[in-house]
Amino acid sequence: MTLSSLGDEYLATVPTGRSVTPHWESGAEFRDEIFVGGLWRRGTGSLIESVDPSSGKIFATLHGAVEADVDDAVDTGLCAVRQSGWADRLPHERAAVLHRIGALIDAEVEQIATLQTIDTGKTLSETRALARSAAATFRYVAAAVETMEGAVTPSRGSYLTMSTHEPMGVIGSITPWNSPIASDAQKIAPALGAGNAVVAKPPVWAPWVTLLLARICERAGLPAGVLSVLPGPGRTVGDAIVRHPGIAKVTFTGGTDTGRALAHVAAEKLMPITLELGGKSPTIVFEDADLDQAVAGIMFGVFSSSGQSCIAGSRVFVQRSIFDEFVNRLVTATNALELGPGTDPRTQVAPMVAFSHRDNVSAMVDEAVLQGAKVLCGGMIPDEPRLADGAYYLPTILSVTDNSAPICQQEIFGPVAIVLPFDNESDLVDQANDTVFGLACGLWTTDFPRAWRIAKAISAGTVWVNTYKQFSISTPFSGLKDSGLGTEKGRDGIRSYMNQKSIYIDTAGQPLPWARTADNR
Ligand code: NAD
């Protein structure tokens, strides 16, 4: 099935004025093919039915991979990095390929964004931004790889000592459905840039854009076999990747329970693993905050992407002196948010990725209400007829008095914010840190010494002050506590796909004295 087979009605909603005909091969986006060891072939695994969450209609089907494909992909990946010379290619030569991948992504932003919007429901403005960010990631990694240096370390004898970095081999990349092209780029670009092969497993709910990225990598001149893309279920294909003895490292983004299970397997193999996991991030409004800025930032932080974001600022702590005024403003602004399909440029809150996920979010809210949470807005599936066919959920604000309520402790991964009052800094820090997660935090205040104090006191990998959900590929990203293990992005993120090696080179030109050879006796 191709994009154009979706019909004129769909195409009329693509607001770009550009053709959506694929630039490389007509219909390539939805070909029923997976990418194993440099070859496109029909999968023999279970059938994936891709549903447009704004209409409930199946727009494409794909046969997924099976465990045997993992063996093929890893074996070919190992050969490919060696035989193609990818691992030994000079950094500026690898960088040239990454630059071309970035340029091709940029040239195809509309194509990629449209594909991802159909697959995930997200707004086109968001999927365009994700595609541009993926291009920027490849360019950043290209520049960083080309300029990375090893070290000549201070010597303690007659030898030259060096610290160098080498590729690891084949990297397993396992990603979730919420921001596919950006998650892929964040893992695949540094892993390739470091000279590795990659076996990528995209999620069942959003496999297409990763397959499209593989076609772009092929066009950019990435040697055959260096990248494989194996869509399929996590419990079979994903599990086989993590357990495979030829996989040197796994980089995973997804839920905390899944990440913990993968970490056990990695421990058995003594294999490094990077985990980017779930969150329940606090966002904090002090009485001296610019309230317009805070309302806009908090809404963006929790309701953009329909709340399907690991860093969603889902616990909103408001100083008691402004609690009523601030919450009223937040509720009024939230009620005015525009719901609709991701293809409509007016849409702020698009459908959720899948009906079953929407229903889980709805059930969690219902349960919270039974346990005493008060619904300040939303709290239900919208009843507007125009939204009846999509996986929509109203942006919701719940009020609870106590951060120990289950709804304050569990990740919802939907458009649901919980407001809680606080009295002073120590009460706030105790409550904000009272969760198993430690991913992100937002602070809204004009008192900068206070912003500094609280930023240091909160257990989170990222803290935003008077802004939220802003990212830079050059700035490391990591989660504390149950939110993750290891770091992505930045130069350290690239190094995490390399083995460090120390080399000692003798400069004396003499046998070591201990051996007492004829010359030194
Ligand atoms: P998930 O854990 O269900 O799945 C993530 C990926 O892991 C999918 O590709 C899935 O098929 C695969 N998988 C599942 N079981 C597996 C197994 N046993 N072995 C190997 N692979 C397996 O998560 P999800 O529902 O796709 O994504 C939502 C979660 O991701 C949320 O918890 C969210 O917070 C988290 N997330 C975290 C970040 C971050 O950077 N910290 C970013 C985005 C999403």
TrEMBL record:
Gene3D superfamilies for this protein: Aldehyde Dehydrogenase, Chain A, domain 1, Aldehyde Dehydrogenase, Chain A, domain 2
Presence of the UniProt keyword Oxidoreductase in the record: yes
Active site positions: E276
Domain Aldehyde dehydrogenase span(s) in chain numbering: 40-503
Keyword Oxidoreductase attached: yes
Keywords on record: Oxidoreductase
SUPFAM superfamilies associated with the record: ALDH-like
One annotated GO molecular function: oxidoreductase activity, acting on the aldehyde or oxo group of donors, NAD or NADP as acceptor
A Pfam family matched in the record: Aldedh
InterPro entries xrefs: Ald_DH/histidinol_DH, Ald_DH_C, Ald_DH_CS_CYS, Ald_DH_CS_GLU, Ald_DH_N, Aldehyde_DH_dom
PANTHER family per UniProt: ALDEHYDE DEHYDROGENASE-RELATED
Family indicated by similarity: Belongs to the aldehyde dehydrogenase family.
Protein known as: Aldehyde dehydrogenase
Annotated source species: Rhodococcus sp. YK2
